[in-house]
Every structure is written in C-alpha cells, then in structure tokens.
C-alpha cells in the first residue's frame, strides 16, 4: 500500500509540471503572423493581422504601454488560421507613438510592433486679414506629401516649399466682413483653415439733416494718432477697480494705440512684466463741443474681461467743485465681453446714476458687435440726448427742465475711446487672460453740429 501511494504522488507531480506555463512549447507548434508590423497613419483606422497556429489555440492583445490607443479583436482563435483586427485611435499628440500587439499560443509569443505617425499640423487654423489684403505665411508639419487648396476666389494659397504655404487675401471693398476657407490635405488627413477678412473703411460721410461736419478723424494717415488726441496715463485701479494700466502710446515695445489699415487699433495686452496695458484717448480734450451729433464706427474685441467704450466727459471740469456724477457723463456705447454683443447707452447725472441705481440706460443685443463694424452715435441738443446703433434709435433722455441735478449737459464735452480690462463691470464675471491680446478697432470718429 505504501509503495502504491508513493507512485500516485509522483504521477500527480508529473502532471502538475506538464501543465506549467514555464514548460517549453513542443517543437511541433508553429505560430506565425502576417504582416510582421503595423504602420498606422495619424487618423483612426483598422489593420488586419493574419495568424496561423497549428495547435489551434491562440489569442492576441495590445501591450500595456499602448492599450489606451490600440485594441486587438481576435477572430477564429480556435482554428489554425484566424485574424486579429487591430484598431488604432486617432493620434492627437505632436509626435509619433509606438506600441505592440502580442500574439500568443501557450508560452509562445510574437510581438507585432505598432507605430503611428504624428498628425499633420499647421501653425494657424484661423486667419484674420485686414481689409486692404495681406500676405500670411503658415508653417505645415506633415510626414507625407501635402497640398493646399483655396475654396474662395479672393483667397490665394500657394505651397512655397515642403514646410510653408503663403496665403494672400485680395482687398475687400465691401463694408461688411467676409469669410472663406482653405484646405491642407495629406493623404486622408485634411485641415480646414478659416479666413476672416474685415470690412473696408467707410469713407462715405453721411451728414445728418440740418448738420454740418465740424471735425473728424478717419485714421488713414500715418501710423500713430495725431495732435488732436491725448493719451490718459494711469495705474491699475484708478477708476472702477479696473486692472489695466493706461500708458502714453506704448509699453514694453508694443503700441496700445496704432493706425492700421485705415483704422485706429486700441490694443490691450499682457506685458513681459505680467502687467496688463491698454489705451484710453481723448479727442480735443481742452476744447470739445457743446451739442452736436457724435458718431464712431467700431468693432469690439472678444473675451471675458473686456470693457470697451465710446463716451464723453466735460472739458476742463474742476472735480473738486463739480464732482462726478453731478458734472454729467454721456456714454454713447459700452459693452462687456462677459455679455458679448450686448451694447448699451447711458447717461449719468446727480439724479440719475449707477451708484444709486437710477441711471438712465438702454441695451440691445446686436449679434455681431464683436465681428462686424457698427455705427454708434449720439445726438445732443439743449432738449434731449438721443442714442443710435446703425441709425436706429436705442434711447432718448429728455431735458426735464428741473435744473442741473437732472440736466448738467450745458457745457462742452469731449469724446473718449478706451478699452478697459476687468473692473466693477468688465470683470463682474471674472476675467479670462487667455483672451489677451485683444483689440478694439475704430474706423472713424465724426462730429457734426447744426448749421
């Protein structure tokens, strides 16, 4: 009995050893796979591996280092011939990536390398062109040959070399912006570039009936503002808890005001010192005008934190004896980027102002304030202030005849253009510095008075 017991133990031990994964594969087991590697493009795709295994039992899977972008689906693994469908996700990284698929039968393994190309990339996917037309150079990175095609006749695109494309926009003579596209194609990859060209200058001066033009600036001469304009210089927090610093023309080698393409650009940007700089300018600050029709054609910037304005304040006012709001304030146009395309007009005086929630104001969502130029205007007479957007009345404030507390608008005021950042209103929903740099563009400012 004892002898038989020992033989039984030895037999069980032999069975256990024979089932071990570490046991060498029998010489007659053959495992092959074709192709021997997968070379994938950057786009999502599927690739087929043909597997032969004479044992009739095999499987396949993606290695751990690539399982987040490679999957392996096994077909007919119980037969001597089957397939593996290798699915590769689109590569959104900037470089090639590598992994492998493991084909396995018992302890026998075959490693199938999987390489995937980096996607094609372009230095810009959005182009913004001025109205006079310009040349823009784009850099292209692609593993294979590529081509470029314009989808609009006013956009010309030419492949300069294997890494560069030159885009040329023709002049836009329309008073509205226009949009187009161009495609860069490499194999099955395609990148569509959007092209936006701003509208032409509006050089037609439409004088309101009964008025005559007394002053204007079309911003189409030179590169900087002329002597009729004065820059404000103030540190952050000067008014309304605004975050920008107003400077006299430039900061850190960059202009806060400049004339480009026949328009005034008021630029707000973050300097290398991490400060936010912007521009606030006054027209005829020591003279101004008493009554008249004041208008400007403006395209507003985008971004949470912006606060552009076109408004007026009294000339040579002594704020110690005639403080705000009793001195009066005329806000022809304001907008905050947190509420895009909603423009407003307001007046402030002792009786009606925002500090006591009595200000007289009106607003309108015009839809394209941040993508198109619009004309904002105010007609100021001894009897009323009327505000307009593109010639349509937005608000009227009448002289009630009850004195200065309601109607301080009896002396000269001067126009102001500025682009604030943050502050009590501009930052009431916070600011998004990723929007910077931003630009408020002004086609013209015109002042008319009655004949």
From TrEMBL:
SUPFAM superfamilies: Concanavalin A-like lectins/glucanases (SSF49899). It comes from Bacteroides oleiciplenus YIT 12058. This is GH16 domain-containing protein. PANTHER family: GLYCOSIDE HYDROLASE FAMILY 16 PROTEIN, GLYCOSYL HYDROLASE-RELATED. The keyword Ligase does not apply. Gene3D superfamilies: 2.60.120.200, Immunoglobulins. Belongs to the glycosyl hydrolase 16 family. GO terms for biological process: carbohydrate metabolic process. Pfam families: BACON, Glyco_hydro_16. Keywords: Signal. InterPro entries: BACON, Beta-glucanase-like, ConA-like_dom_sf, Glycosyl_Hydrlase_16, Ig-like_fold. The keyword Signal applies. GO terms for molecular function: hydrolase activity, hydrolyzing O-glycosyl compounds. Residues 1-22 form the signal peptide. Residues 201-451 form the GH16 domain.
């Amino acid at each position: 009995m004892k002898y038989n017991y020992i033989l039984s133990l030895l037999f069980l031990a032999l069975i256990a050893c024979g089932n071990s994964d570490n046991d060498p594969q029998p010489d007659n087991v053959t495992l092959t796979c074709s192709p021997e590697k997968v070379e994938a493009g950057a786009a999502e795709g599927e690739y087929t591996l043909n597997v032969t295994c004479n044992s009739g039992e095999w499987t396949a899977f993606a290695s751990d280092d690539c399982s987040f972008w490679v999957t392996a689906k096994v077909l007919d693994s119980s037969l001597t011939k089957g397939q593996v469908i290798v699915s590769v996700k689109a590569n959104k990284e900037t470089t090639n990536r590598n992994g492998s698929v493991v084909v396995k039968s018992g302890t026998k393994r075959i490693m199938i390398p999987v390489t995937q190309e980096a996607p094609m990339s372009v230095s810009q996917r959005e182009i913004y062109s001025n109205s006079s037309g310009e040349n823009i150079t784009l850099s292209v990175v692609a593993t294979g040959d590529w081509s470029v095609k314009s989808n609009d006749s006013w956009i010309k695109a030419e492949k300069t070399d294997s890494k560069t494309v030159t885009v040329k926009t023709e002049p836009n003579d329309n008073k509205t912006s226009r949009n187009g596209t161009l495609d860069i194609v490499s194999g099955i990859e395609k990148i569509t570039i959007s092209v936006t060209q701003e509208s032409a200058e509006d050089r037609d001066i439409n004088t309101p009936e009964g008025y005559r033009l007394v002053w204007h600036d079309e911003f189409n001469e030179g590169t900087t503002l002329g002597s009729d304009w004065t820059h404000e210089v103030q540190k952050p927090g000067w008014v309304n808890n605004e975050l920008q610093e107003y400077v006299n023309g430039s900061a850190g080698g960059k202009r806060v005001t400049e004339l480009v393409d026949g328009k005034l650009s008021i630029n707000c940007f973050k300097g290398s010192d991490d400060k936010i700089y912007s521009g606030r300018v006054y027209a005829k600050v020591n003279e101004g005008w008493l009554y008249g029709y004041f208008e400007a054609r403006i395209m507003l910037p985008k971004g949470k934190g912006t606060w552009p304005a076109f408004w007026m304040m009294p000339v040579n006012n002594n704020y110690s004896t005639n403080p705000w709001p009793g001195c009066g304030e005329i806000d022809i146009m304001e907008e905050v980027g947190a509420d895009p395309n909603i423009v407003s007009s307001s007046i402030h005086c002792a009786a009606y102002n925002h500090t006591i929630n009595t200000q007289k104001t009106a607003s309108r969502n015009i839809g394209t304030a941040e993508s198109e130029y619009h004309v904002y205007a105010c007609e100021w007479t001894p009897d009323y202030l009327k505000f307009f957007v593109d010639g349509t009345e937005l608000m009227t404030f009448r002289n009630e005849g009850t004195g200065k507390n309601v109607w301080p608008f009896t002396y000269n005021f001067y126009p102001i253009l500025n682009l604030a950042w943050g502050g009590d209103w501009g930052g009431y929903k916070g600011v998004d510095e990723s929007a910077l740099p931003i630009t408020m563009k002004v086609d013209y400012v015109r002042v008319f008075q009655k004949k």
